[in-house]
Write a structure and sequence with these properties.
Mean pLDDT of chain A: 97
Largest interface: A-B, 47 and 46 residues
Number of domains of chain A: 2
Low-confidence stretches of chain A: none
CATH topology of the largest domain in chain A: Glutathione S-transferase Yfyf (Class Pi), Chain A, domain 2
Strand order of the largest sheet of chain A: 2-1-3-4
Structural class of chain A: alpha+beta
Radius of gyration of chain A: 17 Å
Distance between the termini of chain A: 27 Å
Oligomer: homodimer
Shape of chain A: globular
Largest sheet of chain A: 4 strands, mixed
Helix content of chain A: 40-55%
Chain lengths: ~210, ~210
């Protein structure tokens, strides 16, 4: 199996967590988003939109979209499923994952911040305010969902799920960007718990072959 | 069952298609996004981020996030599943759904266009260019995925799936905004086929109780 990833990409980070939780090793290909490698013809062949991660299975099947990849990993390695099968728990896990994947992350990724600066000529301060705005809206909603429906050290109970695979990279990003997280105690507690687990540690940006400061 | 929806919201439209395909009726509550009803305390209690759709099942379980809702509908009404179970087909359906739900739609929804105009004071022309930019990037990628992996009148074969529930509202939006769709023949063929089916027609914005010009 192969993974096209950038150490600092949070969608790649989600898939790395899922792989680590399932104890799976992959051949790692770094795609340097800062150097624009995602727009090289060779990468566009794998991901027409120029994104990471791209997962390639042992039969050469190439798949994009982190949440689709994690669902597929559950089919390949059904032990310890990351998307539970009990309907209501499953719905809550998917609700949290989609909140992060649709309502927070897409607004703050490299291609969007690049457009703001390059095309709309938005200044640094306004760009940071944009970033913090979507993080605050999204994490407020996440905090409510976890307080209402979650319990235990992970988002939903004693076992990690897709929700945790999405939460950790998002909170790590927010922390790195200096966002104030004090209003989200349950989110931060889940984050801290995850960060103490070996699988989450192995998936961290600093542990990847393409890591640079 | 109840659905909080806005006739013109494409995430609500996805869920309406899924309900219609499953032959299910719901009590419909219009939430007027143009009038800001999504930010009223009563609605924020259902959706902390102030979004639609919100689905409420017969037990009073309230669920946000259109893709989580559609997955839950598959659990409640398993006949004619919208997310297939065969792993590779399932992966392709989820890949297309996530491409639309994460890489296109979040950049062009009401709250983001509002922020561009209100906070960043972006002009109308630049706002339209922003809109068209993300549509073009996303639909180009969608066209490649459908050409490579899809066949048949729907995205993936003879039966509608979650991929079609996402494609139709996205293409309807792009059309309404005057985006040029000539570069995406397979996307448009699927769209045209879906629009000729009664379930898709019942789910259309113009057929909803809160429709206005």
């Amino acid at each position: 199996m192969q993974l096209y990833s950038f150490f600092n990409s949070s969608t790649s980070y989600r898939v790395r967590i899922a792989l680590a939780l399932k104890g799976q090793e992959v051949e790692y290909h770094g795609v340097n988003l800062r150097a624009g490698e995602q727009r090289l013809a060779q990468h566009l062949e794998l991901s027409r939109i120029g994104g990471v991660p791209v997962f390639v299975d042992d039969n050469g099947v190439a798949l994009t979209q982190s949440l689709a990849i994690i669902d597929y990993l559950d089919a390949l390695y059904p032990q310890a499923p990351l998307v539970p099968t009990e309907p209501l728990l499953r719905a809550r896990v998917l609700e949290v994952a989609q909140l992060i994947a649709c309502d927070i992350h897409p607004l703050n990724n490299v291609r969007v911040l690049g457009y703001l600066q390059r095309v709309l000529e938005v200044g640094l301060e306004e760009k940071d305010r944009w970033y913090a705005h979507w993080v605050a809206e999204g994490l407020s909603a996440l905090e409510v969902l976890l307080q209402r429906h979650g319990s235990g050290p992970y988002c939903f109970g004693e076992q990690p799920t897709l929700a945790d695979c999405c939460l950790v990279p998002q909170v790590a990003n927010a922390e790195r960007m200096g966002c104030d997280l004090r209003a989200y105690p349950r989110v931060v507690a889940v984050y801290d718990h995850c960060q103490a687990q070996p699988a989450f540690q192995r998936a961290a940006p600093s542990q990847q072959p393409d890591f640079t400061q």
